[in-house]
């Protein structure tokens, strides 16, 4: 059995750089903790009884990794998450407002780094989050809140976008190939530089009453 903690406030350096498999962290408070390079594999952070997730607010999650974890309802607000990996996780309702995936080089030059793939992001909150040129493929985005978010240049391929407000976020230069595009409307969404396959393009044009021949 993995480590099992309940209702604990996690000391700042307790898990820095550690590898933790099959752990259970019910109602644990990781706020402000330094989890630089920490790996969580198959860990549970969501408490079903209280319907509360792990608290990672203001944590340092630089190069931290979550694989096959339950991050439902997790609070990532104002965390430093440059280089974070979230792969094959449940993250429904997770709150990423104010999370930084950005490395500022100067006041005007910066880059983002994040790998969020094959995860359930339904109803997660990405309002005003900047996740540009990142790996964000094969995620489920149903009902995610993305008002003011920028995904420009990111790989969103293979995603499921039912119940997704395309007008609310910047998706220019994104790869949308093989994605289920939900209610995407060519008339109201800026698709400059977007990549999609011919089947998707034909579907979008058909919605405008344009028949594709050949």
Automatic annotation (TrEMBL):
Pfam family, one: Pentapeptide
Record InterPro entries: 5peptide_repeat, Pentapeptide-BTB/POZ_domain
PANTHER family, per database record: BTB_POZ DOMAIN-CONTAINING PROTEIN KCTD9
NCBIfam families attached to this UniProt entry: penta_rpt_Qnr
Official protein name in the record: Qnr family pentapeptide repeat protein
Organism (species): Serratia montpellierensis
């Amino acid at each position: 059995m993995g480590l099992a903690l309940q209702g604990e406030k996690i000391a700042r350096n307790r898990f820095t750089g550690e590898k933790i498999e099959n752990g259970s962290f019910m109602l644990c408070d990781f706020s402000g903790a330094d989890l630089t390079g920490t790996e969580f594999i198959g860990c549970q952070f969501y408490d079903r009884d209280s319907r509360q997730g792990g608290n990672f607010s203001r944590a340092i999650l630089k190069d931290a990794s979550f694989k096959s974890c339950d991050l439902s309802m997790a609070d990532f607000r104002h965390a430093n998450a440059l280089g974070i990996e979230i792969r094959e996780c449940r993250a429904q309702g997770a709150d990423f407002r104010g999370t930084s995936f950005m490395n500022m080089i100067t006041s005007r030059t910066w880059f983002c780094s994040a790998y969020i793939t094959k995860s359930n992001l339904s109803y997660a909150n990405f309002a005003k989050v900047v996740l540009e040129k990142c790996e964000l493929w094969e995620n489920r985005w149903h009902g995610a809140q993305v008002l003011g978010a920028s995904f420009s240049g990111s790989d969103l391929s293979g995603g499921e976008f039912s119940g997704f407000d395309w007008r609310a976020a910047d998706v220019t230069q994104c790869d949308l190939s093989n994605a289920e595009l939900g209610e995407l409307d060519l008339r109201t969404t800026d698709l400059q530089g977007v990549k999609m396959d011919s089947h998707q393009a034909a579907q979008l044009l058909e919605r405008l009453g344009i028949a594709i021949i050949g």
